[in-house]
From TrEMBL:
The keyword Lyase does not apply. This is ComX pheromone. GO terms for biological process: establishment of competence for transformation. GO terms for molecular function: pheromone activity.
Length: 54
């Protein structure tokens, strides 16, 4: 799972496509995809910002 999060953080265009429903994470069910996206949002907030743009 950490590899997926790292990939998405390094490729924000892919992250945006996943969030918008234009792309999916192969082998990851929609519920887990939601957990990954929510985790990235929380990670942005924990860095003192307003969260990531997603």
């Amino acid at each position: 799972m950490q590899d997926i999060v790292s990939f998405l953080l390094e490729n924000p265009d892919v992250l945006k496509q996943v969030v918008n429903g234009d792309a999916c994470l192969l082998g990851i069910d929609p519920e887990k995809t939601g957990v990954v996206v929510d985790s990235i949002r929380l990670l942005g907030k924990s860095w003192g910002g307003g969260g990531f743009w997603i």
